Amino acid sequence: MPDGDDATMVQARGRFLSTGTYTPIRKVGARLAADAVSERATVVARGLGLDTSVRALRSAARAHDRAAAVAWDIFRPFPLADGVADVVLDVFAPRNPAEFHRVLRPTGRLIVVRPTGRHLVELRGRLPAMVTIDPTKEQRLHRALDPFFEADVTEQVEYPVTLTRLGALDLVAMTPSARHVSHADLNDDGFLPDHVTVSVLATAYRPR
């Protein structure tokens, strides 16, 4: 992705997340993670962020005093030893099941948060160029994880959100869909809804 597009995406994501709109998603992910670990646990997602975007990594590294970030392709072997993590968080992100399994302790948990077909349906209805959610996504997810993990608990989080115009623009700009949406569409107030449905599934998986 060109550096300018990357910067726009990271800035939009920072603004949108700072509004607290996704706080319920953060809370359910944190609770599932907390349920799976002891007080002395090591959490990969808080301790180490992996991304190909330098700008996103800078943001991740500033998220917590003990956070670190590494420019890394998620599909390569992770720069971590075997069995060092109690929790791996994967939120709206690509997955590498074999590496997730390798770096987790036998008692660890993988927490996967992903959108349902209703997620941002109002926005996708107005902007057909936005990336759609494959209806077979859940089946493909379980097929990919099944050799390494079994589902422990799944929770659905769904709620309505009222959007300002800036919030709607940031919501589009913070995703890869921004590359497929024209400026003319974004400048037309009629294309941007003033509310959307947030709908995700969060699952805690245990290693096989």
Overview of this structure, please?
This protein is α/β, with parallel strands linked by helices. It has helices at residues 3-18, 23-36, 44-47, 54-61, 97-103, 121-126, 137-145, 165-173, 183-187; strands at residues 48-51, 68-71, 85-91, 104-115, 149-162, 195-207. The strands form two sheets. A four-stranded mixed sheet has the order 3-4-6-5. Strand 1 (48-51), helix 4 and strand 2 (68-71) form a beta-alpha-beta unit. Helix 1 (3-18) packs across helix 8. The protein starts with a helix and ends with a strand. The model has no long low-confidence stretch (mean pLDDT 83).
In brief:
With 208 residues, this protein is of the alpha/beta class. Helices cover 38% and strands 26% of the residues. It has a 4-stranded mixed β-sheet.
Question: Could you give the count of β-strands?
Answer: 6
- Walk across the major sheet and give the strand order: 3-4-6-5
Q: Ends: how far apart?
A: 36 Å
**Poorly predicted regions:** none
Mean pLDDT: 83
**Anisotropy-based shape:** globular
Structural class by sheet pairing and helices: alpha/beta
Percent helix, as a range, is 25-40%
Number of helices in the DSSP assignment = 9
| Main sheet properties | 4 strands, mixed
Strand content: 25-35%
In sequence order, what are the helices and strands, one letter per element?
HHHEHEEHEHHEHHE
Radius of gyration: 18 Å
